[in-house]
Each structure stands twice: as structure tokens, then as C-alpha cells.
Amino acid sequence: MGEAYQVLDRALALDGANSLGPLAVAYAREEVEALVASMGWSHQVSADGREVLTEVLANLRLLGCDAGVSFFAPFARAAEEVARAELDLACEADENDRKGPAIVRGVLFGVALAALRRMAREHHLALR
Q1: DSSP class of 2
Q2: Domain assignments of the chain as residue spans, ordered by start
Q3: Who's near 5: CB < 8 A, 6+ residues apart?
Q4: Residues 28-77 pLDDT 10s
Q5: What is the pTM of this model?
Q6: CA of 15: how far to CAs of 28, 37, 96, 97, in Å?
């Protein structure tokens, strides 16, 4: 159990290049870049986001979970849809370019998305 928490802490700290090994991180990074390209996203897409996903993939492999980047393709498509809807709403709401409400909304949307994923998972667990 302690080892699982250490893996989680490493993923959250984004220190995978030191703890996971450069080859594991490099392989995961290549996969993430391929996902970004397959989505047609600009190469300018968040370097931080790409690095977080890289760390997640490398840590999942360390845990013995074979959730490669293809597992995350549906997440990427859903995230794109959610981001589009969020930005459409933000454009309507922020005519005065106020950043505070936009940041709070972004946090709340993230919490809502996590809650919806949790509810969907609970539903499918009950079905199984």
C-alpha cells in the first residue's frame, strides 16, 4: 500500500524523469505527442498538460497497469467537447474580461467533471 502512495506522490510531484527512469518517461512522452497529433491539436497545446499525462502513463506502467495512451483517446475527445462548451459559456459570461470568475468557474467545472465521472463509474459498477 505504501508503494502505491509513493507512486501517486511521484506522479503529482512530476518528478518522473528522476524516479521512473528516462526511458520510461521518454516512451510515455512519445505516446502523448502521438495522441496530441492524432487529435489534431496544435503543437502549442499545454506543455504542462502533456507532461502531466506523460507522468501518468509512466506511473501507470510502474503499477503494472497497461493503460496506454490509446486508453485515453476517449478521454481526450470528451475533454475537447467539455473545453469547447466551457469556453463558449465563458465567452458569453466574461464580456468585461474579468479573470477571477473565469478561474473559479474553471475549478468548479473540473470538480463537476470529476463528479460526473464518479457517478458514471458507480452506475456501471452497479450494472456489472
Answers
A1: H
A2: 2-70, 73-127
A3: none
A4: 999 999 999 999 998 787 888 899 899 899 988 888 888 888 899 999 99
A5: 0.71
A6: 14, 25, 39, 35
- What residue type is assigned to position 1 of the chain? M
Closest by CA position to 56, among listed 23, 79, 22, 28: 28
Spell out the residues 6+ positions from residue 7 whose beta carbon is closer than 8 angstroms to its own.
59, 62, 63
First to last CA, the chain: 26
Which grid cell sits at 93? 459570461
Q: How distant, in Å, are the alpha carbons of 19, 27, 42, 61, 73 from that of 47?
A: 20, 16, 11, 21, 18
Contact between 34 and 69 (Cβ < 8 Å): yes
